[in-house]
Amino acid sequence: MLNKNVQTFIACDAEYDEATIVLFGAGFDGTTSFRPGTRFAPSAIRNDSFGIETYSPYQDKDMLDFSYFDSGDLELPFGSTNRVIADIASRSAQILRDGKLPFMIGGEHLVTLGSVMAVADTYEDLHIVHFDAHADLRNDYLGQKLSHACVLRRCHEIVGDGHIFQFGIRSGDRDEFRFATAHTYMNKFNLNGLAQTIEYLKGKNVYLTIDLDVLDPSVFPGTGTPEAGGITFNELRNAVTSVCSQLNVVACDVNELSPQYDQSGVSTAVACKLIRELLLALS
Amino acid sequence: MLNKNVQTFIACDAEYDEATIVLFGAGFDGTTSFRPGTRFAPSAIRNDSFGIETYSPYQDKDMLDFSYFDSGDLELPFGSTNRVIADIASRSAQILRDGKLPFMIGGEHLVTLGSVMAVADTYEDLHIVHFDAHADLRNDYLGQKLSHACVLRRCHEIVGDGHIFQFGIRSGDRDEFRFATAHTYMNKFNLNGLAQTIEYLKGKNVYLTIDLDVLDPSVFPGTGTPEAGGITFNELRNAVTSVCSQLNVVACDVNELSPQYDQSGVSTAVACKLIRELLLALS
Amino acid sequence: MLNKNVQTFIACDAEYDEATIVLFGAGFDGTTSFRPGTRFAPSAIRNDSFGIETYSPYQDKDMLDFSYFDSGDLELPFGSTNRVIADIASRSAQILRDGKLPFMIGGEHLVTLGSVMAVADTYEDLHIVHFDAHADLRNDYLGQKLSHACVLRRCHEIVGDGHIFQFGIRSGDRDEFRFATAHTYMNKFNLNGLAQTIEYLKGKNVYLTIDLDVLDPSVFPGTGTPEAGGITFNELRNAVTSVCSQLNVVACDVNELSPQYDQSGVSTAVACKLIRELLLALS
Amino acid sequence: MLNKNVQTFIACDAEYDEATIVLFGAGFDGTTSFRPGTRFAPSAIRNDSFGIETYSPYQDKDMLDFSYFDSGDLELPFGSTNRVIADIASRSAQILRDGKLPFMIGGEHLVTLGSVMAVADTYEDLHIVHFDAHADLRNDYLGQKLSHACVLRRCHEIVGDGHIFQFGIRSGDRDEFRFATAHTYMNKFNLNGLAQTIEYLKGKNVYLTIDLDVLDPSVFPGTGTPEAGGITFNELRNAVTSVCSQLNVVACDVNELSPQYDQSGVSTAVACKLIRELLLALS
Amino acid sequence: MLNKNVQTFIACDAEYDEATIVLFGAGFDGTTSFRPGTRFAPSAIRNDSFGIETYSPYQDKDMLDFSYFDSGDLELPFGSTNRVIADIASRSAQILRDGKLPFMIGGEHLVTLGSVMAVADTYEDLHIVHFDAHADLRNDYLGQKLSHACVLRRCHEIVGDGHIFQFGIRSGDRDEFRFATAHTYMNKFNLNGLAQTIEYLKGKNVYLTIDLDVLDPSVFPGTGTPEAGGITFNELRNAVTSVCSQLNVVACDVNELSPQYDQSGVSTAVACKLIRELLLALS
Amino acid sequence: MLNKNVQTFIACDAEYDEATIVLFGAGFDGTTSFRPGTRFAPSAIRNDSFGIETYSPYQDKDMLDFSYFDSGDLELPFGSTNRVIADIASRSAQILRDGKLPFMIGGEHLVTLGSVMAVADTYEDLHIVHFDAHADLRNDYLGQKLSHACVLRRCHEIVGDGHIFQFGIRSGDRDEFRFATAHTYMNKFNLNGLAQTIEYLKGKNVYLTIDLDVLDPSVFPGTGTPEAGGITFNELRNAVTSVCSQLNVVACDVNELSPQYDQSGVSTAVACKLIRELLLALS
Asked: What is the mean pLDDT of chain B?
């Protein structure tokens, strides 16, 4: 008798009960205004993950020594943003109820809202660490409040002032930067200030959200709105390893890969390697 | 003093008052479930239209002898399908009020609904001639009623039984084909029966809607859901020329080009040439 | 508790015991001399199969009414052709032992050899129906006997004179065409003679092997060695439907898609649709 | 001692003295107004020619039985159209002086002018057989007389009325079609009338010029100005085989491949196969 | 009544009379010897400019607070380099006569010559600040004096010794580097020496010309002749901001984007963002 | 009489007898498990080498002042790894016998084995300097000992402990890193330690092997297994210039370009420029 064709991110093939971290894909790009395509990210990442090793020479750890579960992708109803957010929240909530860490692969950045809603219901006094090129702090975008350009603004409505820490931001309208001055901690352009932030957040519950376009487009061209002047892969890798290994990260997500804009496959490979480092640092 | 940079489909540079046909783009692909990208069609078509001639040796007519106006693209709020449909209806309605023929360039096929709503408000007993690979007759798609896969079903709710004539259809679920048997005239696979349809529709008000994927994917690969076994360019060109020159076409649209899936530019060139033939046949 | 992420060709999600047809992928391209890439075909086909419908208006049948099982892809040791052939033969043999029909998705055409070996062990007096642009009848290629260019020659050594029927052939060296005259039935350029072949093969055991490059490159550009002057999709669809519904086909394969050479995705969509028609015609 | 790396079109490796046909590349696209790239054609054709066979099952002839010489590409000074034309004429003239047939691979269609100049100096009463989608009969283009869009008009100034026979033409401005009516034999849209033309031209000196965009863009997408509604590969193959085998063709060229617009490589493969058929038919 | 479809670089929609800076496109690549395509740059930049913000967090300035006019693209006669240069000079001259700053978007680097001619007619003692990977100091290229490879040499003939300041240069033949030693100020490989140059040029009239291939190809792959070992985006952004805000820049240009060589769109996005920073620094 | 079309890497057109360095291509990728395509590298490099200059401003040397010979590509029998290795060894051996330095352009990294075998037969106490992202120290891969993933392990069997010096390594399984600790000198992640290595190797015979994926994927995306976090072009250029100018390099190779994964051509340009620097530093 032959087996069914189970597909996972590399080495995420534990039984659900044994796993401490559960992946799922939320390939939604329905509010993307400029160039869509993040819907293709979860499946591309899963597929190309077999081009990387399970062992990290940076952390000297091997995924084979831990238990991860990949629960596949949500089937999301394009055209109904509200239902999409609800479906994501529901998946995160179930993983949290089972005492595991939800690890979401987007999708456009709006998907973070669904997961943050579920996590904020579970963990008190939630703080968000946010790596991104864009502030994502608009109140609305062409009249839409549920938009990728507004996602951290919506999250702010959940977690409140002083609970969002933004790094690498180098694009937004003037109002977003003003809002940040008043309501979030924002470190523009680079990762300066991360060490102090980590010190401050020790012992607190942290949601880690990574918009991969925080990377320089030379490193990560496969994204809808590339923004020149970003950080290097090693800067981001070091930063997220520090966050995950030193703080109490209770959930995380990795967003905004649009694999079809990078025919070389490098952007997908970057995402895969970063996810490996995250999974190992969280273990 | 230098002039502003006005961009139009080739030879559509008349003054609004003089024009009898008015183009507009509706680059919406927000409900596209499989592969997005029709949002890029109107601007690609406008740009590449300068690679074709204004003269048609098929009809021995020249666009320079007529007056067309290109009113540019609607700015559509991705994420809110209802508002998109309303904005499209509003643009069509204005053109109709000014006694001109609205010629819409999509976008996914759902955009047709907005224009049909406006046209059906203006013209009594509206009939729809529909070229497509897909039936588009689903009642809903993943629970959504406003979906590209349902657009002719929604149009049927407006124009009623026996008012929709479908050609080239070769894909759908079983229920769609059953619905067609009961409620529309459907010619599967090819254009047989077009001559009789034209005979029957003479003197009636006709809305012509063309999903370019009715063409064989060899001719038109640049589309989200290519469906093998389609018709040739000359078959479609002949068909739409007949419809436009022999019937009382009061509005029309051309949809479902996704230029980024055809790096050769051939699909965009096909769309441009077909639009030229349509404009000439409608003049 | 969340489910594992099972991936199949659309609607091939039956339990193994219930299925009458079992798919597997053999993404091998290790002897491809010109342009590699068929290794990517099985996963691309599985992925894009969700862009087609399960219902065929051509046959008025729906995949949902039958039971198919997709057993995933073989992990093949590139660099060792002998072991690859043996692994393929082994998978086919197991499916045959369980009383099911093996349906292989290549891979370069050499993979057919493994499956034919297993099938010829099971079924007496095996005949092969072969659609292809290339004769594949070389005795060796740069000294290699296990080469895509020799696969039908190797099959001939198994099934013998008068047991191979070739259609659509339009490329080869002079010796291959001479060999065909003496040892196989070859119909050059098109499908003429298929009706008589079907008549002749009624009641006999038939292995059906399809090299998709039999299609014209306009229809199917995504292949390593495109050969102008081929047949249309509807010609091939009609032909294979006739073969499968009128003959005793005991195994089949579909080969030589190289998805990365067709950025439009049309070639993969063509393969998916043909596989659906084959699965329905075999049911 | 190791040999130098000689590169030729497949099987065109005879010594110069033995060859009866001499190839050369003229990769010029300096007047191309819309989309450049034919400069890359000669090298792409030479490279991909090793993906086709030397034997033609259509003609039952093998290139290995004849002697062809490939003299490589002219190094053309972009920016100086006059010098480019002169360099081409000079190369053709040398080949003619040596009693051989010049076979040029363009480049944009303007390169034909240089070769026709040299051939008309050698052969009296030269006639031109011209396959193309475009009339190329403009008197000037944006004031330029040496433009791809004017090349047959310039040739007409050399060979005179009634000496140019055009097939497959489906694009041009109104004046070009009027000029054709008065001065050339033009068969619009298809190849009807070729048989009579061949009958008429028997015994006369013929220059054969092929703009590959005469093919339908589905067959040949890799070209700067694709023009829907063209002919099939087999139609063109049959036509040029007839011309070459029945008429006294004294020189020929094949133009307007832009390989980079067809990432699949199909267009280059089509060009290679057509050149093989031409070389065999001319032998 | 509907409006005409005016297309501009983002936020460059002022009335001509109010604008202090006037953009125009010069999409000429007629002397490009290696890989053409800069002709597509102006329209690609205009189109993708809507993917960036009007606000710069680097300068804390917003384009909405200033008045820019985009006068569209020159229609240039390919094949006649002299006329192209003259047309560019004429456009620049008109903008200068109206007391505005001409901001040209190329095109290959040769277009700079036309603009420098006009500017040198208007402003005395003109100095040129030049960022580039290539020296562009050849006396001729394949006999052509009007070539992209010679443009700074031609400019030197206009502005004279000691008036050209070159940065980032890392490619050229030996003679070009010798010429630089004698006649220009050249800073090889990087931007060292820029601070002193700025100090020296204070109060002088400066023409700023940027060949975007000065950037490392990882940052800017979309160019005809990528040259490894270049500078980063932030290095270039800082440099040009300094030049524009501290010196009397009377005209500038940005050249050598070939968007079709970077399917990711990153190179076009880099160009857009740099142009925004330039426009803001010049205001 | 016209010349044959000789194709070489730029400026490698000396007579064989005069040359001190002999290039050859070994475009083999038959054991590549993830993404094939290095077979296309030698011809792409030769072709695009005409986009770079022969003069290096870094070394102030010009290739025109030295004598190099390009002996073209080996025709390798895909499907038979043993014969491929033997053919490569044979070509290297011949060049060595003639007293010249073999300079091989791969191909996947396994090709190094063939050349090292020949060189180790000629030169005693051979040391290997190895730049790579991957350790390549597996004992076998899916049971294959002749695999790209095992090549340095096979070389270790030839040259022994303490004779291999690895730089830039950032990927491998745990066992490979353990093996390196015991048997090679490995510098992880970067080029630290190179100066000491050069000091140590002075006067010894050195084989230099460069897997171009040691570069960061932003700089060199065109490779089968891109590995984020690599070194810059200038770091690699400096390093190999030091090795070649200060050590007794007796043979070298450059591997793992897959040009088709980088449509921009940048990766091929990087390879060309690095080869120029190597050739000059070796002269």
From this structure: 97
Chain D residues with CB-CB distance to F8 below 8 A:
4-5
Determine the Cα angle at E109 with ends E106 and E111, to 5°. Answer: 65
CATH number of the domain that residue D148 is part of: 3.40.800.10
Q: How far is CA E24 from CA D120, E251, E282, in A?
A: 45, 12, 16
Nearest CA in chain A to B110: A79
**F104/F25 Cα distance (integer angstroms):** 6
Amino acid at F77: P
Considering only alpha carbons, which residue of chain A is nearest residue E221? Answer: A218
Domain-located, residue B130: yes
Q: Does residue F127 fall inside a structural domain?
A: yes
Closest CA to C3 of B270, D118, A24: A24
In E1-139, where do the E strands start and end?
21-26, 55-56, 61-62, 68-73, 101-106, 127-131
Quick one: which of C160, C5, C18, C27 has its CA closest to C91? C27
- Asked if residue E164 lies in contact with residue E156, where contact means CB atoms within 8 angstroms, the answer is yes
How sure is the predictor about E142, in pLDDT bands with cuts at 50, 70 and 90?
A: confident
CB pair distance less than 8 Å for A6 and C2:
no
Give Cα E158 to chain centroid, integer Å.
Answer: 18
Residue D52: give the domain boundaries: 16-282
CA distance A165 to chain E (A): 18
CA distance C32 to F77: 10
Cα-trace Rg, chain A: 17
Output the CA angle B182-B188-B191, nearest 5 degrees.
Answer: 120
pLDDT tens digits for A39-83? 999 999 999 999 999 999 999 999 999 999 999 999 998 888 999
**Nearest residue, CB atoms, B263 vs list C233, C234, C263:** C263
pTM: 0.97
The encoded tokens of residue D87 equal 């360099």
- Total tally of structural domains belonging to chain D: 1
ipTM, 2 decimals?
Answer: 0.96
A78 and B33 within 8 Å at the Cβ level: the answer is yes
Q: Which residues of C touch B227 (CB under 8 A)?
A: 52, 269, 273
Structure tokens at E78: 């390919």
- Residues B260 and B222: their CA atoms lie apart, in Å, by 7
- Per-residue model confidence as pLDDT tens digits over B170-184: 999 999 999 999 999
Write out chain E residues lying below 8 Å of D142, CB-based. Answer: 75, 77-78
**H-type alpha helices, chain F:** 41-48, 81-97, 111-122, 151-159, 174-183, 194-201, 233-246, 266-282
DSSP letter at F134?
B
Structure tokens at F34: 């993830």
Residue A10 lies in a domain: no
In this complex, the residue of C33, C78, C83 whose CB is nearest that of residue F32 is C78
- CA of F180 to nearest chain A CA: how many angstroms apart? 12
DSSP output for B96-132: HHTT-EEEEEESSTTHHHHHHHHHHHHSSS-EEEEE-
- CA pair distance A120, A111, nearest whole angstrom: 15
Are B6 and E2 inside 8 Å of each other by CB? Answer: no
Residue D105 within any structural domain of the chain = yes
Of A188, A226, A263, the CB nearest to E57: A188
Whether residue B168 lies within 8 A of chain C, CB to CB, comes out as: no
Give F 211-270 residues with CB within 8 A of chain E: 216, 218-219, 233-234, 237, 262-266, 269-270
Taking the CA atoms of residue C26, residue C31, residue C33 and residue C37 in that order, the dihedral angle to the nearest 10 degrees is 20
Average predicted confidence (pLDDT) for chain A: 97
pLDDT of residue A210 exceeding 90, the answer is yes
CA distance A128 to A123: 12
**Residue A209 DSSP code:** E
